[in-house]
Amino acid sequence: MRLRRRSQAEDPAVEDGTAEAPGTEAGDTSSTVDAHRSDGPWDASEHDVDESDETRVDLGCLSVKGRPGLEIRLQVDEASQQVGAVMLVAEDGAMELRAFAAARHEDLWPTIRPQISSEAARRGGTATEVQGPFGPALELMVPTAGPDGKSVAQQSTVMGIAGPRWLLRVTTFGRPAVEFKPDGLLEQALCDVVVDRGSEAMPPGEALPLRLPTGAQQTDGS
Fold first, then answer.
1. For residue 137, which of 19, 31, 159, 180 is within the disulfide window of CB 3.0 to 4.6 Å?
2. Is 9 strand, coil or helix?
3. pTM here?
């Protein structure tokens, strides 16, 4: 497992327009909260994190378990030096993780999906709603610049996973965006994630704080 730092400019999730913070409105959808998390990802109240477990990386609101062949990259805003997202990268694809505060017994995802669809359309792409492993998801095809500078269509799938007073937004690239395999390396890493919402009051839609782990090795470049 490697831990590396990336700027927002390097991150493919920025290219497809899914990196914007979600909205703050949500209806009462308590019946959907936790409905699709029987195998994780977990809330901190559901899964004790062993602080002596050297395979786990404490990133603040997210605890990620390392696995052979998995690379953990942190998207850092160069101006503020704040960590904005976590990227899990494997040979066959990647997953971007962002966690947000939510009201108790409410799911923000139904409100966020139209916003993501509108942003994809604004960028000249398309968004198709599909049924994913955690409920409704969006398949995006958004033009982006390829290695040779020419415009190519980048495919991704965005999922919203609701937990107790939080929403974990997962954007998949590569093989997981096309085929979600429960026994895949990235999928297993996602199910190992533990979200620590904290007890402080936060408005729905505010990003939960991420941080660089103590003693992390930071490298730049692709």
1. 159
2. helix
3. 0.81
The answer to whether residue 209 is domain-embedded is: no
CA 14 to chain centre: 12
Q: Is 54 helix (H, G, I), strand (E, B) or coil?
A: coil
Helix, strand, coil abundance in the chain, percent, nearest 5:
15, 40, 45
Given pLDDT bands bounded at 50, 70 and 90, which one contains residue 220? low
Q: Is residue 163 part of a domain?
A: yes
User: Exposed/middle/buried for 6, CB within 10 Å: 0-12, 13-18, 19+?
Assistant: buried
Note whether 29 and 106 are within 8 A (CB). yes
Q: What is the strand order of the sheet 194-195 is part of?
A: 42-43, 194-195, 62-65, 56-58
Q: Count of domains in the chain?
A: 1
Give SS3 for 91. Answer: coil
Boundaries of domain holding 144: 2-17+29-195
Euclidean distance between CA atoms 108 and 32, whole angstroms: 10
pLDDT of residue 208: 96
pLDDT digits (tens, 9 = 90+) for 145-193: 878 878 888 999 999 999 999 999 999 999 999 999 999 999 999 999 9
From residue 8, alpha-carbon distances to 51, 54, 75 in Å are 30, 28, 6
35 within a domain of the structure (yes/no): yes
